[in-house]
Specification:
153 residues, mainly alpha, 68% helix, binds ascorbic acid
Length: 153
């Protein structure tokens, strides 16, 4: 009987520590965190290809690039639909100030979407110089938001 009780208590303790099956307080992923990650990862291949073209590592063809920029506008909306706060310890790489500084985070999100819209507008002109500048601004928005609201890597 004593052994059974000890086992029950130990199991409860381990379950509590593991955060219900995640990896614990640093980087555990709850449901929304998973959805955010999936959405960011979905948008990245297209954005990375655009980056290679902007850097001259892949050839620039205006028509497909216009399509990529339009796709980025659509795909970059999705991650921000999943910033519902997960339970403590399950927010993945999102720092708590995403929610405690909601106004600041909303401003960073707005700035990012504006930069993506500007990149799309530049892409539709077919002017590579404009595209390069606008792509750099999007990357700057990624970085400045990560610097403040994402767990350092
Ligand atoms: C990327 C990527 C980011 C941003 C950032 C820009 O391609 O994965 O997180 O750009 O590195 O500075």
């Amino acid at each position: 009987m004593k052994q059974t009780l000890a086992l029950v208590l130990l199991t409860a303790l381990l379950t509590a520590c593991s955060g219900g099956g995640t990896t614990g307080s640093a980087g555990g992923k709850g449901q929304y965190s998973q959805e955010r990650s999936t959405a960011f990862k979905t948008m990245m291949p297209n954005f990375s290809t655009m980056g290679k073209i902007v850097k001259g590592e892949e050839p620039y063809h205006p028509e497909p690039f216009k399509q990529m920029a339009a796709t980025l506008v659509a795909e970059s909306q999705e991650p921000f639909k999943h910033f519902t706060q997960d339970p403590d310890g399950q927010t993945g790489d999102a720092l708590p100030n995403v929610w405690s500084d909601a106004a600041g985070f909303a401003a960073a999100e707005k700035s990012f979407h504006e930069a993506v819209a500007k990149l799309n507008a530049a892409a539709q002109t077919g002017d590579l110089a404009q595209i390069k500048a606008a792509y750099g601004e999007v990357g700057g928005n990624c970085k400045s938001c990560h610097d403040v609201y994402r767990r350092p890597k």
